[in-house]
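User: Predict structure, ligand iron/sulfur cluster.
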Amino acid sequence: MQRIGVFVCWCGSNIAATVDVDAVAQAVKTEPGVAFSTNYQYMCSEGGQAIIRNAIAEHKLTGIVVCACSPRMHEATFRKTAATAGLNPYMVEIANIREQCSWIHKDREKATVKAIILSRAAVAKLNLDSPLTAGETPVTKRALVIGGGIAGIQTALDIADAGYEVDIVEKTPTIGGKMAMLDKTFPTLDCSACILTPKMVDAAAHEKITLYTYSEVEKVSGFVGNFTVDIRKRARSVDADRCTGCGDCMEKCPSKKSKSEFNQGLSNRSAIYIPFAQAIPNVPVIDREACIKFQTGKCGVCQKICSAKAVDYEQQDEIMTRRYGAIVAATGFKTINLGRFEEFQYAQSPDVITSLEFERLCNAAGPTKGKVMRLSNHETPKTVVFVQCVGSRSTVECGKTYCSKICCMYTAKHAMLLKEKYPETEVYVFYIDVRTPGKGFDEFYRRAAEEYGVRYVKGMVGKVAEENGRLRVQASDLIADKQLVIEADMVVLAAAIEPDPSARNLATLLTASMDTNDFFTEAHPKLRPVESPTAGVYLSGVCQGPKDIPDTVSQAGAAAAKVIGLLAKDKLVGNPCVAGCNEPLCNGCSACELVCPYGAITYEEKTVMDHGVREQRRVASVNEALCQGCGACTVTCPSGAMDLKGFTNLQIMAEVDAICR
Amino acid sequence: MRVDEKTLAEDIVRMSGTNVKKCMKCGKCSATCPSFEDMDVHPHSFVTMAEEGDVAGLLKSKSLWKCLSCFACVERCPRGVEPAHLIEAVRFFALSPQGLNKMKPDVVPIFLQNLEEKGAEVPQQLLTSAFRKYSK
Ligand SMILES: Cc1cc2nc3c(=O)[nH]c(=O)nc-3n(C[C@H](O)[C@H](O)[C@H](O)COP(=O)(O)OP(=O)(O)OC[C@H]3O[C@@H](n4cnc5c(N)ncnc54)[C@H](O)[C@@H]3O)c2cc1C
Ligand code: SF4
Ligand code: SF4
Ligand code: SF4
Ligand code: SF4
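Assistant: Predicted complex:
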């Protein structure tokens, strides 16, 4: 027989205002096994914990029930309290009389009855508890970072600097992400490449970092501390060890009509290409869709020209299996497709461009060598209209409900860069709100208006139409209550950003959760912003939500700190509430193996005693290091052989009985 | 504002099927409106006035008879507010005798006559739209 102590918490007035805590403590006194019960203002406080410790010693308790808040809040706290008083930490049950009772009810009498019932159920369960011991698993001291933008690069550098091995998997042929495409960066207007490329070089040169570019994660199994990941290294068709990066092949390649991804389709590239001059690795890749050799079998020019004999048309995709202790998602973003915003004529007019295309036009290494020009006639625009919030803050189908956060600032940047290059240009910015919280941000935006004479107009653009070779822009000026019509030469749209489309599939592989917009969700929006709710999976950069480079880099460092904290441990204490097979009952039907999401179940041939008969049988066996205690197998097993420690079928039934009594 | 005017405003908004609280004052409706120059109260202000319960202001606005029911604002509003439906509801309220909630062809001549007496012009689309919406 257990000797149970019941501790009812007031949680200040959170519980006590709705539940008569004293009545609860009194009512459970007569429950089987209960040797002691009391109530206290804050059970989780040091004073409250002392009451528990003293009661365990004084009344020789074998287990405790704490009637308080959700076990997610303080189960760990009370387990520790029990352990310091010499109890097995799994001889602790929590009756959640706050979230599941006081917070959701108003009627004090009924809430008190419900609290008593919940407490009774916990006592019934505790009567069947037995001490459990958690197993330990070793930690693989290597991290995987998925995505090689500034977020992934920074996270990898920080982890590697702490002395741990890191692999970066990047799906495009180079690391760098969107930041590599930017010209200057707000709020300081320093050149993006000048601050990014040294970091790219550091990452490539770091002895602890391995880059897998043109690669993707294909399969993930295992759990925190012990992930096993299959990485598909796509065939570059160029042997990276031999290639010297001379670029002769690109020059001679006759297939030159593919759109350059790096230049946002504003220039062409060859079939064999390096995305941009500072790409890392500086090794070309053959775009097999565009390559004449791959499409028709003829050509082969690049192989002939390559003096290093690096071009290899036979190269195959390679699958590598690697083990990691921690995984960081850093998959970034893309700008949304503007094809459906017909009012802006983006698909129709070459002079209507996105802000990211504008970055490429401004950039000295871009398709126009840094000359901002109308793509229709290559003339310098005299009047340029910027439109903010295109597709952001929109509840209609083709838009995004959130604010993309970066566009107010980069639009101010673009307006200033343009005025700097071409002071005569008339520049308009149409805005709904100008959102510039951030160090030096509002000053930056005001500089555009006050020093550069950029005309900020509160209102949206309703319509853009091509007329006599120019763009007729019809817009609201809400403050003057006027409709403006501007003859413009160029319209720049601040398109909303959205998560990389591959993120959804990745989330499934990682069993990490996402919000309705496909941004990865954090474990707690305020207190655990860089951890995913899935243990061992961390978040870095825009894949978690829109942010600029300063925020991305801070978050990248924070994610690295969490990873380092994990990798610094030699062992992880597991969860002892795992499944176990009652072998004489198991008939080896394989039902449990099929439902287990963690691949924790295998089968063994074993000798079992069945009603006094010795038999050779196939029975299930649970790998306790892999089992996450989800319980799927226990409800699937047709013979009731699978049971979950700490949540046995008997215990659950006892709880139900106690509630229905 | 009188209490009954407030309830009236709420009724009109409900009848229009719009949610004026969703408006974020971006002005895209007014930016896209082809009748803007002929209006005294512009589409975005229409939404604000309805939100404030200013039925009297809406009823006496010139815009009531200038909106073409072209639905450009409905199409473009990023928040799905549908300002034109709101204007139509007010217009319908102005036209219909108490209790009537369908527009039937036989009442059209009377409307037109009433309106002419008030000196208002009625855009063609307005009538088409009123039929489309109310005569089913
Ligand atoms: C027009 C424009 C101008 C901007 N200007 C500024 C500015 O001036 N100042 C500023 O601070 N910020 C600016 N920003 C914001 C800045 O670009 C971002 O904050 C930054 O790029 C975020 O970095 P990231 O690594 O999270 O994402 P990304 O740069 O998108 O990098 C993600 C990387 O992950 C890779 N990837 C995606 N999915 C997978 C997958 N499944 N497997 C493997 N790899 C994958 C991608 O290929 C990419 O390389 C601007 C943004 C835009 C659009
Ligand atoms: S083989 Fe393909 S990549 Fe090489 S030169 Fe020909 S088209 Fe270009
Ligand atoms: S950052 Fe500015 S432009 Fe971008 S969506 Fe938000 S408010 Fe609009
Ligand atoms: S409880 Fe069963 S189904 Fe769930 S992880 Fe463990 S073995 Fe697999
Ligand atoms: S377009 Fe919609 S959200 Fe914008 S002002 Fe008009 S009604 Fe309001």
